[in-house]
Design goal:
homotetramer; Rossmann fold; 9-stranded mixed sheet
């Protein structure tokens, strides 16, 4: 099991951290394919409660798209990646689409717009082709070709700005809007700096307490929203405690030696790249294009 | 009655526009006092449905604080104004406060953060002393002295950004948060450029369809939220159609002559001062200080 | 001659406002061509000082690209427009390019980032493929194919933010950077609301005092910078005084009748569309793509 | 001497890192006083080139204001701190002030506005009482009482945004503006997380290559600007390599053991607190108030 200080929001990292080899973990299925040039897709399925407990991630499916090029300025790679992402979303999504009564998809941009590495969700919603209000006013005539989905979006802010749990806000909006699907977009914490800005994780498990950069306190899941939930994230930070623990382990050759206790202030700090502004803009745009291609109108 | 092109969100202007003198309008009560140096308070009470129809504003109370100094850079005036505003809010507010179970006050920052004159609501929420989450975690121990109110806030965005009616979003949040009071903060449209940035209107009537800069389509009121609603606004724009009509009337000496029809594109334009960035920041801060003094913790 | 209240930054509008037909104005040459679907190019050449005085714009060449589609969300039109713009810039530019010692092009984003319709220049610089520092460090190896130009950019802010005339700041930077060309990007004021967001003006005359939204006080020209200057702008506002005067003239059937004097406060107000945030983002991106195609590296 | 990975922009930390006690370092003078409740001032004077070499900081005076309260939300502490800072600036400043021909003070907000911990400089300039342009237009009549100094400010942006070295930009502006003093405001890197957001450093040595969050390449000093330079900074980040090295040293009990080599990617990462948005806003405001009190008009 993971030492508690070695936090990761990526299921892929969580299972890698197990001392046993992945094949040996009962209840976990892993498959890896190259889906495009420089782009690997890994599917981790956590199939039993036992496996969930071992890995420390809830039961469900986690798709990971990985490429060093996610962190680079390469427009054609990002265009390809957004198409692959759209395919993932479509295949993952339990909706069938309906041209008569299109399904509303609510995208929630989690995170704090005022903290650069936490902007992924807000920036992603900024670039969506929001369409629900147009259908409400003009019907399918609003679009060049009919659409089976209607996009809506919200950037709720973080608890220090709203005084509310994000879950409370989303539950409320879901109760009046009645969307068919909720997509959560959030900045994630990775365990390893190698994965920073190079991985997109898509899962059907929602967001757990303590996930993301801002550490939500309550889960945002299918259970507490009452509708299917997809979550979409990219690691933008590593916890400072994690990076230090990891380095200590390297020196001490393996995790068996007891680690010294870390100063508690380390847990309120995160590690992020110096050019995080460029990276978060680029990745937010790639995510929004993926969502637009899957659920937006054909503009 | 107002020519339909002469839009104003201020009850004070709406009643001034009547050809009869205010005293003659049945069902309307007006009182004016000087509440501080350079600061006039006018209370307009629209008491009957008939009066509401004549004036074109819903039944209710409208307090107007007016001063040329609202548009100026005068810290001591703004400090005074925020105290007067806090008193207005307290006296207007139907809550009594409760130290055991403090009442939650939800402040909604209406408008579009990306359009400068429409930033009043979002900027106001940015400066609030949000306290509800602190009480949830630490109780009254979170504050230097106990507080009878808990502040929470949301900036929902506008329909083009969310695909949702703002009312839908607020209704949803109210249904899960269950606040005791909702305060709506919005940029208003005035009829006269003389009132731009010089007036704060506080009312208990909520926001009507077509109000504000961004023209909400559905009302946000006590009726559709199920809790008391105060709305707070400052005129930041004049509709372009209004400014033109007003000028034509001046030339034609009185509103009796038929006005020429205006190009429809005029109705999608607004008029705003060149230094609107300074004005909106200053006024948003004054509003937030008023709300903080009335309902925030004593920091 | 233009009534002083009828301000426009567009040479095209200035010459249209003359009572004589364009053909009759000596020293002014006008040619119009359709350069792409939905895209008209008009070249106004003001060839004599007399003509400059009559029209109220300095001697020089003004290219105007016009299309109703500039105000619309149509990615393929904007892609075409940015190519046409790149061609205009290249043909207009006095530089020949040099792969051994590439010419530095300094792009100046004029205007106030905090006032939405005045953001065109700052947003345009935000999207440039800045390359000068990469060449300084890695030479041509920094780019996939060698580049004859190096892009640099600055957003100087407005006088209320800096305490300096923008000309002073640019003169200073030009004196140390020694660029071969300066491109000024600015939000313009149109006379007619029909031209708002539908016109790109490119000229070799620099920016005159009182131009743009923020009204620079000193000219920014080849004369006071000592290097060739291109200016690039899109009308984002109409002066409030202009819109009122124009309406009055319509009513009074022609400009011969004396106009009533306008309240002076009108001159500190401007008129802008309600969805100015979307328009300014889109147009800034189109301008930056045009500049990138003309002078940026081949990424 | 400091291991090269243990970077700090604070002279106080640099001298603390020496194995000898401060008193023993020749050419270094240190004095500490409590200047207000919870507020300690340490003056480090590096008096010889030898001492500069030993400590790794240029010859000059470094004033450090330290308090745990800098990181807290305590308006009255921040008001006191800004007064103490104003006194430091005034006593440090070589200008005498002149009511007839007031001295221009140019404040440069270094750093990248798009990366939260690097916003200190830009945010500080945003809050200055810029006055130079008012004097240029109205003379001393612009102010309630005459002022001996005129404030001007610039936010130049970082090299990735401008393609220019920041020094080039400032040198240019200084050459046309001819200010009497230049104040540089920048986010700093500390060695220890204990000093994050709790220390203001004021020095007369300018900014050295590799300082700040964004790592300027060329020095910005009195030598290359030709006028006196004060620099003002607050540690907002710790280099990731530093935090790891520091932790390893703790485990290995002292710096004598050879440290393992760190992955090079660590050097492109920084560590910052999760609530960096609140901290940077608060501290930028405190700095701007200090500068306003020392050099701004009496508003």
């Amino acid at each position: 099991m993971l030492p508690s200080t070695l936090r990761t929001d990526l299921a892929l990292e969580a299972q890698e951290a197990l001392t046993c080899t992945p094949q040996e973990t009962e209840g976990v299925k892993i498959s890896e394919t190259t889906v495009a040039s420089h782009l690997t897709q890994t599917i981790v399925q956590i199939q039993t409660e036992n496996a969930a407990k071992t890995i420390g991630k809830p039961k469900g499916t986690y798709i990971t798209l990985e490429s060093p090029k996610f962190a680079e300025h390469d427009d054609s790679f990002h265009a390809t990646a957004s198409k692959v992402l759209a395919d993932c979303l479509t295949s993952f999504c339990p909706l069938k689409g309906n041209y008569q009564h299109p399904d509303t998809v609510l995208v929630v941009g989690l995170g704090n717009r005022n903290v650069t590495p936490d902007c992924l969700g807000p920036f992603c919603v900024d670039h969506l082709s929001i369409s629900r209000h147009l259908f409400a006013e003009y019907g399918q005539a609003a679009f060049p070709t009919p659409t089976p989905y209607l996009l809506s979006g919200i950037v709720p802010g973080v608890m220090g700005q709203t005084g509310m749990e994000t879950t409370e806000i989303i539950q409320g909006i879901v109760s009046t809007l009645r969307p068919a699907l909720c997509i959560l977009v959030d900045s994630l914490a990775a365990r390893s700096i190698k994965r920073l800005n190079r991985t997109i994780q898509i899962s059907d498990t929602g967001i757990q307490p303590g996930g993301g950069v801002g550490n939500h306190r309550k889960a945002i899941t299918r259970e507490n929203l009452g509708i299917p939930v997809l979550s979409l994230g990219v690691p933008m930070v590593v916890d400072a405690a994690t990076i230090v623990t990891d380095s200590l382990q390297l020196v001490q050759k393996g995790p068996s030696t007891p680690l010294p206790s870390l100063p508690p202030s380390l847990h309120t700090l995160f590690v992020t790249p110096k050019d995080v502004d460029d990276r978060v803009s680029r990745l937010a745009f790639t995510l929004s294009e993926g969502i637009n291609k899957a659920f937006g109108p054909s503009w």
